[in-house]
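To close the section, here is one more complete example, presented without commentary so you can practise reading it yourself. The ligand is zinc ion.
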Amino acid sequence: MKIIMLGAPGAGKGTQAKKIAEQYGIPHISTGDIFRANIKGGTELGMKAKSYMDQGQLVPDDVTIGMLLDRISQEDCKGGYVLDGFPRTIPQAESLTEALNGRGEKMDYAVNVDVPDTAIVERMSGRRACLSCGATYHIRYNAPSKENVCDACGQALVLRDDDKPETVQKRLTVYHDQTQPLIEYYQKAGILVTVDGTKDLHDVFADITAVLGA
Ligand code: AP5
Ligand code: MG
Ligand code: ZN
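Output:
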């Protein structure tokens, strides 16, 4: 199964993508996580991405598209994958469609996790992220069992650099300008599913699996 997660920054794409990946035994591919891992590792890609990310801007398509297409060509993607944070622009979506067409493949679902802007800023300020394994927590809604320690891998949790309120506002503006048009793109493609992302995260997951099939 090949799934795309759509939704505003902080809608819960990563939270749900991790659960989907576990349930269906497919890799969770987050372009944001790949960039953050590269920043942490001090790579050239990471340095390039950081300047955009810290300002809430998108990393340019010419960097992002090649990186993602490489990733989904790897062996572990043969049985499908869940994409989180890609595509984020119409050119990214078109490149993905084209690349898959070339292999006689297509995406199965684009899951739009719908959350209004008003709920986003509060979610972001309470988020804690693990930069080692990509797990995400919330100090109130999804707390780790030990404060500031990742349940999955034991590393320390951090507040992401781009989760400051003013950067979150910028990311929301960029989302509405550049990413929201993908909802119509995938509706036209006939694979769009919209779920109410304001529900409890377990209920959101139940709504998603009801559509995907258990
Ligand atoms: P990325 O890492 O993808 O960030 P994002 O899209 O802004 O999304 P987030 O990770 O912030 O939110 P999320 O939807 O995953 O929510 P989460 O599950 O954590 O991208 C970062 C940057 O990288 C971009 O700004 C850009 O610069 C660059 N980039 C990445 N991909 C790119 C691309 N394709 N092209 C160009 N540039 C790219 O949940 C948020 C919080 O809410 C958590 O604390 C969570 O615990 C909590 N929560 C989740 N669900 C619920 C719920 N139902 N109820 C209550 N709380 C909940
Ligand atoms: Mg995320
Ligand atoms: Zn971790």
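Once you have examined the tokens, check your reading against these statements. Strands lie at 2-6, 28-30, 81-84, 109-114, 127-129, 136-138, 192-196. The first helix runs from residue 13 to 24.
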